[in-house]
Q: What sequence folds into this?
């Protein structure tokens, strides 16, 4: 069933678990991730990143597949734009039938980010589209010019998060407290108290989002969920694991003769990997 993310995130926060949000830039990942969500029996968000559209498959090709698979799934599925900063990209995703948008203007000065997101959210809500924004700057992986000390300068201020959420009306806000995108050069250390402070300060109509979830140890992931994270973005380590699996498979005796048979094996691998991730996000519930 295709849904936006408003109700599934509200239910997640009330239940003390988090909804996984996983990039699905090809058919094998769509099928593996949705089969995992059905087996673990949790709602899921699948998303298409602007950067994947620029460097890979276009939303006009992958978007309708995401939407069709979402409609047929046995669990609620939100089809979401990931880090859309170009308005034209967001419009292309909405034309493909997406139910939710991350409008990421975090590179702009605070008031500009706020006013543009606020205007967009008013229109989006009238059309039943949920909206996520970002506050703070999510760096690339630690170690690439960042240390555990200097990354703290990018952390989201709880009072500013509250102001942004109240004035913009967004359904979800991605905040910075120690995670980064991509592959971690050093193990991340999360500021869990900051998550609690952000959750307590924000209106209860806006959920807390953690990006860079892959590569964080499971203990800290679950502490962040208990502290108030309801949406957890995860991709890089899944993509990397699938590559390693394919390399192992193609070099071994388990290799199939036909390409599509190897692809089917990848769907199974992604499903099993995602089942583990989604079980961690259930946080014991
Ligand atoms: Zn992100």
A:
């Amino acid at each position: 069933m295709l849904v936006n993310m408003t109700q599934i995130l509200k239910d997640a926060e009330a239940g003390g678990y988090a909804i996984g949000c996983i990039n699905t830039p090809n058919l094998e990942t769509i099928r593996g991730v949705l089969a995992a969500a059905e087996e673990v029996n949790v709602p899921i968000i699948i998303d298409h990143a602007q950067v994947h559209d620029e460097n890979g498959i276009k939303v006009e090709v992958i978007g309708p597949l995401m939407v069709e698979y979402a409609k047929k799934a046995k669990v609620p599925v939100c089809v979401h734009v990931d880090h859309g900063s170009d308005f034209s990209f967001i419009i292309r995703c909405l034309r493909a039938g997406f139910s939710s948008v991350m409008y990421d203007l975090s590179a702009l000065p605070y008031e500009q980010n706020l006013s543009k997101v606020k205007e967009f959210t008013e229109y989006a809500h009238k059309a039943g589209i949920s909206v996520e924004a970002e506050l703070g700057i999510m760096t690339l992986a630690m170690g690439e010019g960042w240390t555990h000390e200097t990354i703290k300068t990018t952390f989201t201020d709880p009072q500013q998060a509250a102001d942004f959420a109240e004035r913009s009306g967004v359904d979800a806000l991605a905040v910075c407290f120690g995670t980064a995108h991509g592959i971690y050069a050093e193990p991340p250390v999360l500021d869990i108290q900051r998550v609690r402070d952000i959750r307590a300060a924000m209106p209860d109509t806006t959920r807390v989002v953690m990006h860079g979830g892959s590569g964080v140890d499971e203990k800290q992931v679950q502490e962040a969920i208990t502290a108030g994270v309801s949406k957890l973005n995860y991709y890089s380590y899944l993509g990397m694991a699938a590559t390693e699996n394919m390399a192992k498979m193609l070099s071994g005796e388990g290799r199939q003769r036909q390409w599509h048979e190897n692809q089917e094996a990848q769907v199974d691998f992604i499903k099993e990997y995602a089942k583990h991730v989604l079980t961690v996000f259930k946080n014991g519930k």
Q: What stands out?
A: Strands lie at 2-3, 19-23, 44-49, 77-84, 100-103, 130-135, 172-175, 207-210, 229-234. Residues 64 and 96 are 6 Å apart (CA to CA).
